[in-house]
Amino acid sequence: MTVSLEINSITAHYGTTRVLEDLSLRVGAGELVSLLGASGCGKTTTLRLVAGFLAPTSGTISLGGRDITRVPAHRRDIGLVFQNYALFPHLSVRDNVAFGLKQRGMAPAERAAKADAMLERVGLSALAERYPSELSGGQKQRVALARALVIEPPLLMFDEPLSNLDAKLRIDMRVEIRQLQRANGTTSVYVTHDQEEAFSISDRVAIMHEGRIMQFDTPEELYQRPANAFVARFVGFENLIPMRVVARNGDMVTAEAPGGVALDFSQSRFGAIPDDFVLATRADGLAVTADPQAKGIPATLGLRTYLGRAYQYQCGTGAGHLIANGSLATPLSSGSSARLVPVPEQCCVLKPERI
Amino acid sequence: MTTRTSPVLVAIAALIFLFLVAPLVIIVGASLSDTTYLAFPPRGLTLRWFWNIFEIEAFRSTAITSFQLAVLGTTLSLLIGIPAAYALNRYRVELPKWLSTVYVLPILVPEIVFGFSLMKSVSVELGVSIFPSLLIGHALLVLPYSVRVVSASLASFDFSVEEAAISLGSPPLKTFFTVVLPNIRSGVIAAFILAFITSINDVSVSVFLTGPGISTLPIQLLAYMQQFFDPTLASVSVLLMIVTVAVMAVVEATLGLTFLTK
């Protein structure tokens, strides 16, 4: 049973604060979509709206084409996995997993058998008689996962499920979650503030900020082609350089950075370039060279740090403070003059906005 | 590693223990005294003062009233207190801060004032008859214990557990009984015991609300003491002690007393 989730221009207020602003999101059948953002960005609110614990001020939510905006939470059939596990302390592991089946009126023997089968899938058969207080964090989260999966929900939602686990276990668990989700083909929404986690586990990621989705795309697209300055900064583009076009010659556009240097851009590579734009690069996308003739931004080098694969320099330029990488073969000393040459493959052209 | 105990500390602890236990020993002793006045150490041993309790109709009827009030009043206070404690914890962010203080007012207000104002409002103005007035008084008197003790339990309850149950298809009301209540059970029992003991011992509120024909055991004890000063007083006290110890023993055997300190 794979269905899609559609959130249509949801607005949510919390008291007088607007938490979500005209938010729309479509999660395809069988897809795993992450909501990624800092705390307070509205990702958890979105999840709680879909789960039915909050009601939107306006907008609709539909699951498999059925409008569930006004359906009470207990009739939404959505599997939830919580950050703090939220296991029933007074029930054994088996009864925890069987809880949802019991609500569905399944006979005791049948639900115990189904719960045991699900526990086997998450590798916890041996612990069926235990109580949650006797389990480790990783085991608890597996029980929570089994409990959510056993009701075969059309939609599975995760609220920062791995935040309370240590780093090693977090990586193992996210692989496990992804494998189970793939095997079942369950449409899933995954809320996290951890970029690596979101990118590694998801088909698509919605990067959220102040109640809006800034960009909704595949991890690859987000990482390589951020759509705006916010997302660019979020995925680690350290350098956002405002540029102004000074000449156009067919495909080639010449633009000037603050400080006066002119650089050439090919529109066939970057798409149509507006008169004002922002050149975004990571430190890797600005090559440091001592050659005074190189076509790059003049810079005075500051602190040099060793990254293993390159040296990284803090640079003072006419375009402000930039971070650039230089080759290990020719370390340059602090205070010397250099040029920062943009590497076209690693640059993005963004529309100007307040950055 | 062995714990070093200072002899001074041991002496102080022993003194405090003596201070707590000595009055009880004296009462037990006095209740057995074969004299017509309270005497310690007892002169001669007899159980006749215990029989005397059951022969005095006033003690019998007030004991029953006290017990009824304690059970009904405590139950009533829990019926109000549990939902109140739930709401205060569940919606802590949304609800105004002063609201939780309202529920402890009966402890904060001097009991005499509380009793007097109940008499003026409930008995006199509203004309409620004696037993219902007493019941209202006792329920309100012990309400702070219900709310606070159950609240303490709920404070450590993770409400996402409740949401998990709802997401798995359990309706909210059913979830309260099958998931929330079992997890705050010890708090509810502790609240019941504290409230019960407070109710059964109460004098200052009850004294304003009792009337012709209906009184409580502590009030009857006071009234009896003004006329007679025989060991019956001590034997009633001993009986109350035995009941309390028995309740505690049952609790200790089933739940362990440690939950009271939680």
Descriptive report:
The complex is a heterodimer of chains A (355) and B (262). Chain A is α+β, with helices and mostly antiparallel strands and 355 residues long. Chain A folds into two domains: 5-232, Rossmann fold; 233-350, OB fold (Dihydrolipoamide Acetyltransferase, E2P). Helix content of chain A is 25%, strand content 35%. Chain A has helices at 43-51, 93-103, 108-121, 137-149, 167-184, 195-201, 219-224, 229-234, 267-270, and strands at 5-14, 17-27, 32-36, 58-63, 66-67, 78-81, 155-159, 187-192, 204-209, 212-217, 239-249, 252-256, 262-266, 276-281, 286-289, 297-306, 311-317, 320-326, 337-342, 347-350. Chain A has a six-stranded mixed β-sheet, sandwiched between helices. A five-stranded antiparallel β-sheet of chain A has the order 13-12-11-14-20. Chain A has a five-stranded mixed beta barrel with strand order 15-18-17-16-19. In chain A, helix 2 (93-103) runs parallel beside helix 4 and helix 3 packs across helix 4. Chain A is elongated, with a radius of gyration of 25 Å. Chain B is an all-alpha fold. Chain B has a single domain (56-261), classed as Orthogonal Bundle (MetI-like fold). In chain B, 73% of the residues lie in helices and 0% in strands. Chain B contains 13 helices and no strands. In chain B, helix 3 runs antiparallel to helix 10. Chain A binds chain B through residues 51, 53, 72-80, 82-84, 86-90, 99-100, 103-104, 144, 147-148, 151, and chain B through 158, 160-161, 163-172, 175, 179, 182-183.
